[in-house]
Design a protein that fits this description.
Layout (H helix, E strand, L loop, with lengths): L2 H36 L11 H7 L18 E5 L3 E6 L4 E13 L2 E4 L9 E6 L2 E4 L6 E2 L7 E7 L4 E9 L4 E21 L13 H4 L1 E6 L2 E6 H4 L5 E4 L2 E7 L3 E7 L5 E8 L6 E26 L2 H4 L18 H17 L3 H32 L1 H10 L4 H15 L7 H20 L23 H16 L4 H5 L3 H25 L4 H26 L2
Antiparallel strand pairs: 1-2, 2-3, 3-4, 5-6, 5-10, 7-8, 8-9, 9-10, 10-17, 11-12, 11-14, 13-16, 14-15, 15-17, 16-17
Length: about 550
Amino acid sequence: MDKQTIIALLMILLVYIGFDTFVWKPQREQQAALAQVESLEEPPAEEERPGEAAAALPSSENGIEIASAESDAQDYILENDNLRAVFSSRGAVITSLELKEYDITEGTPVDLVPDRSVLLNSKLYTQGKSSDLDEVIFSTVENQDERSLAFYLGEEENPQLSISYKLDDLYGIAVEYNVQNMGNVNGFRVSLDSGIADSEPNPRHKMQDYRFLLNADNKLFKLPLSKMRKAQPQGSFGSFSWAAVRSKYFTLAVRANEVALFRSYSACLNPETKNPGFSIDSFSKDAKAFWNESYTLYAGPADAKILGNYGLQMENIAERGANWLRWLANFFAWFLNWLHGLIPNYGVVIIIFALLLKFALSPLTTKSMRTTIKMQEIQPELNALQAKYKDNPQMLQQEMGKLYKEAGANPLSGCLPLLLQMPVFFALYSVLRYSMDMRNAKFVFWLKDLSEPDPYLILPILMGLFMIIQSKMTQPKPGDIDQMDEKQKAAQSSQKMMTYMMPVMMFFIFKNMPAGLVLYWTIFNVFTIAHQYYLRKKFSKE
């Protein structure tokens, strides 16, 4: 088997291993970790989980007597420069979260709350009983500013239950719950079971793009929607940091402001949208007359830089591939964004990025090409050695090693540029598919969203054609083939077959990848072809 066939097979193997290592394996590990969380021992009977009590007694008639305010439900609006939130006094819930800087269609802002749904609906738990607050009409504290709002039950000066909201300068909403003089409370539920709304007009890859994420007990768990539709995980933990649901570009996350109470989670699906949601239960062994807890609700883009402002590793909500590649993906995201500040077209930015990377790898490509030419020059000597030691493989390997050393040739050096390309490829995949900067990033004509696959498969076809051209450039001349023995001719026949099989296989791999990634790979191959042509001309004159 000759060098080119080895490289072709190696490339296919690397792509497969790369996806298994950086995409499929992390998903399997996270699913196994979630399964382990689900199988944790249940707390002792006296520490019964609130969710179990609620399942046994779901009716609020069995819970605390809660008196509604004597008025109809009203809506209230809080907003900052980025977010417009609508609240209802019925249940003290959020009914709309509009992102001012992002549209789902022209003139229609993205709303992260699904139609006919609410967020942060809550529930109180007593010893073996539960009380839903969904239909309770709350009063509101007067004279609130445009960024804060407080709901209460009872007297304003001494409320039995109060729920307050306050917007920050970005996409966060501080939420605080206070309960007093309502009996013995031992648990509280905060729910985002309606999940996250679709933020794109026609989301085509929800199964892989939408996820439930959980950071608990110093571990990060991720579960794609494709797995959640088979089973919704639930479990308990001692240290809760945050839980989130994410669409392709946006996220809803509940971040704990303190780690004091034992908590459990339950993931779920919105019955209408089939999108992921969740609820968080806090509970205590001993019932309390007073109960206080606070969270921060994040409702905005799944942008690592913005999420990093909220601490607790919330930047991990943004998809950046395998953990050890995050630094490289973050660098690429920053660099592409910087280039876009100079060139307002991401297609052109990707082309320039491919050119710069080609320049960076050009010393290795030059060395690889020198080796290829030297291998062709010593081919007659290799043929002679193979004929001389055809019955002594060990001696043949020794003599070939000496010949390679004398000629300064390494038959596997051509693999090094390809090996260095693999981390770049997988880091770019997550950046070009999930980076907010790539949302609706246009290039030319039919390429209206570089984060989505090419709808007409033009780029994957072009990529395959250029791969064929590149492969043919490295094939030996007909005269050289005539000097080969039967074994070498058979190897050349295998290489010729791979010349066409390899592009076909790569076409089927790349046709479902982001158009921006296929554009990068295609342009990089074009630059490689031009570079190889130049080097062949240069070395032929030496």
